Amino acid sequence: MYKEIIIKDILEMKKFAQNIGKYVFPGFLLCLEGDLGAGKTTFTKFLGAEMGITDMINSPTFTILKVYEAKLPLFHMDVYRLSGIGMDYDLEEFIYGDGVCVVEWYQNIIESLPQEKLEIKMEIINETERLLKIEGVGKYEEIIEKINN
């Protein structure tokens, strides 16, 4: 299933992330793609807040992975630097774990990811607006049907 949503400002991004946060479950895999500044980490901050995380969420660009504890842990990955490296960083335990896994730049490790996932591609329209292209495979299809902004 596929859907496109235009996000007009940061408040709409927050609302969208909160909407997604209602449907997370153990083993939830969310894959984010988009240029620098498209809103991947901002979205993840809002999703984490919806999950009850009070820690400051920031980009794991240089550490690859950050783990945030909550009722469901959030595994936040930025695999930008892993292009062509594969899974030499033992990320499988998080990708296939019991938390919520958010992978920024997921295309760099696409061969290592399960087919069932929720993908959000973020495109910059202008300074405040974003086009979100959302695709769900398998059990994630019904989530796309439910989300509206």
Description:
With 149 residues, the chain is of the alpha/beta class. The chain has a single domain, classed as P-loop containing nucleotide triphosphate hydrolases (Rossmann fold). It contains four helices and seven strands. The protein has a seven-stranded mixed sheet with strand order 1-7-6-2-5-4-3. Helix 1 (10-21) crosses helix 2. The protein starts with a strand and ends with a helix. The mean pLDDT is 91.
The CATH homologous superfamily name equals P-loop containing nucleotide triphosphate hydrolases
Q: Main sheet, how many strands, which sense, barrel?
A: 7 strands, mixed
The CATH class designation is Alpha Beta
What's the CATH architecture name?
3-Layer(aba) Sandwich
- Return the CATH topology: Rossmann fold
- Enumerate how many helices there are, as a single number: 4
Give the spatial strand order of the biggest sheet: 1-7-6-2-5-4-3
- Please give the share of residues in helix: 10-25%
- Let me know the number of strands: 7
Q: What is the overall pLDDT average?
A: 91
Order of helices and strands: EHEHEEHEEEH
User: What class would the helix/strand composition place it in?
Assistant: alpha/beta
Please state the oligomeric state of the protein chains shown. single chain
Q: Rg, please?
A: 14 Å
Strand proportion, as a percent range, falls in 25-35%
Count of domain modules: 1
Q: Between the first and last Cα atoms, what is the distance in angstroms?
A: 17 Å
The coarse silhouette is globular
Taking pLDDT < 50 over at least 5 consecutive residues as the criterion, the unreliable ranges are: none
